[in-house]
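TA notes, week 10

Several of you asked for a full example with nothing omitted. So below is the full record: structure tokens for the whole chain, then the designed sequence directly under it. When grading your own attempts, check the secondary structure regions first.
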């Protein structure tokens, strides 16, 4: 998420930010392959503190070599709210990453809300043209995440396109999958609170989640 989100006193943004960072090492490979369509041959961890004149901390930052031999820096940001400064922040990231690693940079912003935000995604100035792809998790098929064996990935299904499925059944599938992974001890796992926080993004699930988690 953006630096501005992290500085806001609101508890909600901090909770989502914490979950995204905690689960990123598990969820990122699925996003890279299934959402971005990148076939990875090798992946290398990169430091997430970029310092020159100021410090920036990207959500996801990897050095990727594809199966076809292409090497580049992959930069992914997860965004919860509309941010009119995002275009400038992404441009700053790109310039700093290009300067630091001397490699091509591919950037993506994945928006976690349900509605397309009015964020500007491109600059068309006299001597500068720049843009980044804005991807909506609400437009991604929930099965993309629900079919995973990892609870961290399964929970992302709650934010995806449910394709007119009954929300109750989707929440139940997620809870059942997590229970199988944790051998039934859902309330004693870190996934319990993470699941509740994700459900808050889809507030209509709150009642269902309470029923399911108390079973």
């Amino acid at each position: 998420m953006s630096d501005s989100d992290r500085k806001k006193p609101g508890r909600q943004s901090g909770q989502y930010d914490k979950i995204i960072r905690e689960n990123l090492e598990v969820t990122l490979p699925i996003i890279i392959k299934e959402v971005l369509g990148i076939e990875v041959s090798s992946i290398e961890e990169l430091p997430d503190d970029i310092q020159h004149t100021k410090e920036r901390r990207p959500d996801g930052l990897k050095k990727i070599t594809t199966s076809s031999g292409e090497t580049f820096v992959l930069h992914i940001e997860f965004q919860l709210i509309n941010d009119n400064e995002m275009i400038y922040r992404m441009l700053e990231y790109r310039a700093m990453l290009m300067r630091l690693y001397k490699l091509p940079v591919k950037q993506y912003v994945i928006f976690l809300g349900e509605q397309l935000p009015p964020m500007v995604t491109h600059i068309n100035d006299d001597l500068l043209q720049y843009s980044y792809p804005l991807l909506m998790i609400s437009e991604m098929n929930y099965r993309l995440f629900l079919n995973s064996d990892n609870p961290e990935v399964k929970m992302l299904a709650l934010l995806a396109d449910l394709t007119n499925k009954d929300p109750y059944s989707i929440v139940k599938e997620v809870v059942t999958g997590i229970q199988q992974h944790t051998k039934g001890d859902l309330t004693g796992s870190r996934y319990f609170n993470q699941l509740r926080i994700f459900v808050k993004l889809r507030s209509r699930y709150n009642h269902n989640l309470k029923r399911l988690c108390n079973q």
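The mean pLDDT is 82. Use that as a sanity check on your answer.
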